[in-house]
Amino acid sequence: MLIPRREVDYIFDMDDDELAEFQVFAKKVAKAIKAAFPCKKVAEVVLGLEVPHAHIHLIPMQSEQDVDFRREKLKLTEEEFKEIAAKIRDEFVA
Predict the structure, then answer these.
(1) From the centroid of its chain, how far is CA 18?
(2) Looking at CB atoms within 10 Å, which of 14, 58, 60, 62 has the fewest?
(3) Is the entire prediction scored with pTM above 0.90?
(4) How far out from the chain centre does Cα 33 lie?
(5) How far are the Cα atoms of 68, 76, 88 from residue 82, in angstroms, in the given order?
(6) 42 - beta bridge partners?
(7) How far is 63 from 34, CA to CA, in rounded Å?
(8) At 85, which helix (H) or strand (E)?
(9) The dihedral of CA 45, 68, 94, 84: what is its sign?
(10) Distances in Å between the alpha carbon of 49 and those of 24, 52, 55, 63?
(11) What is the pLDDT of residues 45-81, one digit of tens each?
């Protein structure tokens, strides 16, 4: 999940320059995710009324079912989260 630097409730309330920068950053992170976790594509999902801030979900996917938010969420340990973050960070080119 990516969150913009400035706290804003609705992604389309962001200034044009902020939104452009946010999308370019999302592209870099998506490329790192795809390199770290081979998949067909990385989905970008702007969704959510449950939290009062704009955010983007980036999800490695093999099929459209991988972005079904009604499915049960993965339960990962803190160590597994750290391993995933390290893999993405290793592939990330700023």
Answers:
(1) 17
(2) 62
(3) no
(4) 9
(5) 24, 10, 10
(6) 60
(7) 14
(8) helix 78-91
(9) positive
(10) 24, 7, 11, 25
(11) 998 777 889 999 999 999 988 888 888 888 999 999 9
